[in-house]
Design a protein that fits this description.
275 residues; alpha/beta; Rossmann fold; OB fold (Dihydrolipoamide Acetyltransferase, E2P); five-stranded parallel beta sheet; five-stranded antiparallel beta sheet; 15 strands; 29% strand
């Protein structure tokens, strides 16, 4: 349901404080499995001049699909939802390369400490008062304008434990693959297939996009259609003039164009001496 189809409300619209400069509009995603609450919150946000776009999702899995299609600056999310609940969703989003801020909107006060642990920007208790919602938007805007992320992103973190999570869907079921599980990636048009030891997963991300995001995390292009995790390479050899990389039971060809870069990257790894 879009925000424009939500019922009209007699409550005053949330608005910026008088005299405050109008920032660039925020892209908001509202997530709630209860349609009346979803509709009302989306409508209230749509009245706020600081919000440029409001989209909705009725579940955590649908929210991930929405974010895969287009990013959001902030997610206003219920906590108690079937399947992927609000806390689980927040933990997944914390691994995103570009993490949206999280504002929990819930009828339960007892999860406030959990919200702090997943770096939520705010915690709003239902029923939502317009003035309280306006304060949440103010907090989101303040963080956005300072360019201060509420948690280190997987892209910028030097901590190796910061491991990006990629949502994948199969047969209507959403599961999650960690970047560290991916051994190699192959291009499939506008999609890519992530190969792990347990199988493969098709995701709507281009190979060039993943190369840019993952290069600093040990991935290297070996072919126009293949990206490989350096840590997964067990052998590099020449075979009839062609360079081959071996990933245990997998052999992948290296193009001449990418051979030098592969060699240079491997030489910089401790203990690696490729042929």
């Amino acid at each position: 349901m879009s925000a424009s189809s939500a019922p009209q409300s007699s409550r005053p619209a949330a608005a910026p404080a008088a005299g405050a400069p109008r920032p660039v509009g925020l892209r908001a995603l509202v997530v709630d499995d209860e349609r009346p609450a979803l509709s009302e919150l989306a409508w209230l946000l749509d009245q706020d001049d600081r919000i440029a776009q409001v989209r909705t999702a009725s579940s955590g899995a649908e929210a991930l699909r929405r974010l895969d299609a287009a990013p959001a600056d902030v997610v206003f999310c219920d906590i108690k939802m079937p399947g992927l609940d609000g806390m689980d969703l927040a933990r997944v989003l914390s691994r995103f390369a570009e993490r949206p801020q999280i504002v929990f909107v819930t009828a339960f006060e007892e999860h406030a400490l959990d919200a702090f642990e997943v770096w939520a920007t705010d915690y709003v208790v239902k029923p939502v008062r317009p003035a309280r919602l306006a304060e949440s938007v103010r907090k989101v805007v303040a963080l956005t304008e300072r360019h201060a992320p509420t948690v280190p992103s997987a892209e910028s973190a030097s901590d190796p434990d910061q491991d990006e999570t990629i949502p994948v869907e199969l047969g209507g079921v959403t599961s999650f693959v960690h970047r560290s599980q991916v051994r190699y990636v192959q291009a499939h048009g506008d999609y890519t297939r992530l190969h792990t030891r347990d199988g493969s997963h098709l995701v709507r991300l281009s190979l060039s996009h993943l190369e840019e995001r993952w290069s600093e995390h040990g991935f290297v292009r070996i072919h126009r259609s293949t990206l490989v995790a350096l840590a997964a390479i067990t052998q590099v050899r020449l075979e009839e003039g062609r360079r081959i990389v071996v990933l245990d039971d997998i052999e992948l060809q290296v193009s001449r164009r990418h051979s030098r870069e592969l060699r240079d990257r491997l030489l910089r790894l401790p203990g690696r001496r490729p042929r």
